[in-house]
Amino acid sequence: MTGRWMTSLAATAALMLVAVGPAKAEQKWIKPAVKECTLKAGQECNIDKKCPADLPFIVNGGGGMPKVSSQDHAVAMTMNLAISKDTWRIRYKNLAGGPEVKVKMAARIKCADNAKEAGW
């Protein structure tokens, strides 16, 4: 009886170790960065967001529709990608030939503490 109990206990412990598996890398969304620019026709404005030191690898990021001073505008996102292992860049450009516009934009990124888990 004691032998069966010990075998059962050992099997349960082994199963728990397999079920837990290796620790996952920590990933966290970082507080958004906000930037305002005044864009003349053809001008661009970048917003670069960098990962903090404790989570130095970029996983994902993005920005939404910018808030633009004029309803009649042609401001477009022309870049939305990682430019290095720890920095994400979003670029907006005034594609219109009209007057300058004020643009307010935001970038949000997700960072990790492990390069492999982050895809680097």
Commentary on this structure:
By secondary structure, this protein is an alpha+beta fold. The protein is 19% helix and 46% strand. The strands form two sheets. Strands 1, 2, 4, 5 and 8 form a five-stranded antiparallel β-sheet that branches. The protein has a three-stranded antiparallel β-sheet with strand order 3-7-6, with no helix packed on it. The protein has a single domain, classed as Sandwich (Immunoglobulin-like), CATH 2.60.40. A hairpin with a 2-residue loop joins strand 6 (75-84) and strand 7. The chain has two helices and eight strands. The radius of gyration is 24 Å and the shape is elongated.
Give a short synopsis of this structure.
By secondary structure, the chain is α+β, with helices and mostly antiparallel strands. It has helices at 2-20, 115-118; strands at residues 27-29, 33-39, 44-50, 57-62, 67-68, 75-84, 87-94, 101-112. The strands form two sheets. Strands 1, 2, 4, 5 and 8 form a five-stranded antiparallel sheet that branches. A three-stranded antiparallel sheet has the order 3-7-6, with no helix packed on it.
